[in-house]
Design brief:
CATH superfamily of the largest domain: Immunoglobulins
Strand content: 25-35%
Number of strands: 12
Number of domains: 2
Largest sheet: 6 strands, mixed
CATH class of the largest domain: Mainly Beta
Helix content: 10-25%
Oligomer: single chain
Radius of gyration: 43 Å
Number of helices: 1
Distance between the termini: 117 Å
Order of helices and strands: HEEEEEEEEEEEE
CATH architecture of the largest domain: Sandwich
Shape: rod-shaped
């Protein structure tokens, strides 16, 4: 172990002066002792050989160009939408016409940037519904509570903006209600009844 430590110290004693000499550009002398030990130093000794150390290679970086209007950070060039809302239906609106048809419209500002690969998606009860432009009509919608929201995604599917979730209700007549042939009270007692 001691031999290894001595060897490391010896190498450091030889390499350190050379490294410092290279870095500082000073003169370096090499001498070999009677036992064959090589010594590098910055002071001349009898029998020492002067070593010419070339200057260190340096590279200077060019100065960056001054900032101009064209070189502003990329963030300012990213397209941003300012608003996305569900125009119809209104939150908590109830549809009672019996058809189950629910018109849905979306308001987006600024308009959709399809050139950038953006898509407008409408999600009803968590499932995507096709849009024709910024509107659609859901046909034969089941009765009950439903939710809808819209979002714009880029070509990678990353959401850029989304609307608030709107809740609406559909009421439809019961096809099995009274007098319609389904379960429930029928007409009064017939002839000979109680």
């Amino acid at each position: 172990m001691r031999r290894l430590q001595k060897a490391v110290v010896g190498v450091l004693l030889v390499v350190a002066p050379i490294t410092l000499a290279f870095a500082s550009g000073s003169k370096v002398y090499k001498s070999v002792g009677e036992d064959g030990e090589v010594t590098f130093t910055d002071t001349p000794r009898p029998g020492a050989e002067k070593i010419v150390v070339p200057p260190a290679n340096t590279i200077s970086s060019p100065a960056p160009p001054p900032a101009t209007a064209d070189t502003k950070p990329q963030e300012s060039k990213v397209f941003k939408y300012t608003s996305l809302t569900i125009g119809s239906p209104q939150n908590e609106q109830t549809f009672t016409d019996g058809s189950g048809d629910v018109p849905i419209s979306v308001d987006l500002d600024p308009p959709l940037e399809t050139r950038l690969g953006h898509r407008l998606e409408l999600l009803v009860n968590g499932e995507a519904v096709g849009l024709q432009g910024n509107s659609t009509t859901m046909r034969n919608t089941n009765r009950g509570e439903h939710s809808v929201y819209a979002r714009v995604v880029d070509r990678d599917g990353i959401q850029l903006i989304s609307s608030e979730r709107i809740t609406f209700f559909v009421q439809r007549p019961n096809v099995f209600g009274p007098g319609l042939g389904g379960p429930g009270p029928g007409p009064g007692p017939g002839p000979g009844g109680p």
